[in-house]
């Protein structure tokens, strides 16, 4: 089981946060095969020797890949995965922290031993191990199947990642994990939730654009519908989703500052511009996959090891 994990991280202007993240990877010991860090066109130059506090067992396996222009997380993860050589990808945000090894080792053991499992979802917790006050992959304390994961705290088999084509870059960010996991379920690979508080994620306010995120949250629901819904369902759901997006943006004053109309227009312009590409990428999912995925948002069937 040694040296199986490729940790994939993207960082621009959260240098202090990513340094702590890298330091925490030392807890993985011999499970860690490599760390691939995308230097995502930071606005402020990184300091010389900025990772000198990172333990040598991590820094010796650290590979920094630079991007001259800032890319969205979907593109960044796909670039990292294209160069990764581990059998399992550990997805972390630059402000994530590994809290303990045992849960990650357990997830790795399951991914290696059960060919039906494609990904492991961990909860977002605080450094004290308490559940963070935002959406979790599953609000339960038992191992269970779940509809998706969050890339601040997740693991995926490398062969599954490449078989289903990685993250959909048209989405840029927001709901890209859901879209990835729908395709994963459709290909016959389950997403398993482990309740162990193995990874902390306290989102840093640095270099985050809440208005952009709100727009993408609204827009990408339309994108997913075009990409994957059967045509008969798409004709029924698209118009209500356009209306729902306006209501969402209007109600998200803490993210939009109340100026939601311009964001909605931007989302519509993006959607019209990207529609030809969405239609080219369109791969309707099985109705059984869509139904099961929706059911797992409310039901969390227990996992029994093979």
Describe the protein's architecture and organization.
By secondary structure, this protein is an alpha/beta fold. The protein has 2 domains: 5-201, Spore Coat Polysaccharide Biosynthesis Protein SpsA, Chain A, CATH 3.90.550; 210-284, no CATH class. Helices cover 42% and strands 15% of the residues. It has helices spanning 15-24, 56-59, 73-83, 102-113, 158-163, 176-186, 210-228, 231-251, 253-256, 261-281, 287-295, and strands at 5-11, 32-40, 62-67, 88-91, 96-98, 117-121, 144-145, 154-157, 190-193, 199-201. The strands form 2 sheets. An 8-stranded mixed β-sheet has the order 3-2-1-4-8-6-9-7, with helices on both faces. β1 (5-11), α1 and β2 form a beta-alpha-beta unit. α7 (210-228) packs parallel to α10. The longest helix is centred in the last third of the chain and has 21 residues, at 231-251. It starts with a strand and ends in an 11-residue tail after the last helix. The relative contact order is 0.13.
List keywords for this structure.
single chain, 306 residues, alpha/beta, Spore Coat Polysaccharide Biosynthesis Protein SpsA, Chain A, 2 domains, globular
Please give a quick description of this structure:
By secondary structure, the chain is α/β, with parallel strands linked by helices. It is built from 11 helices and 10 strands. The strands form 2 sheets. Strands 3-2-1-4-8-6-9-7 form an 8-stranded mixed β-sheet, sandwiched between helices.
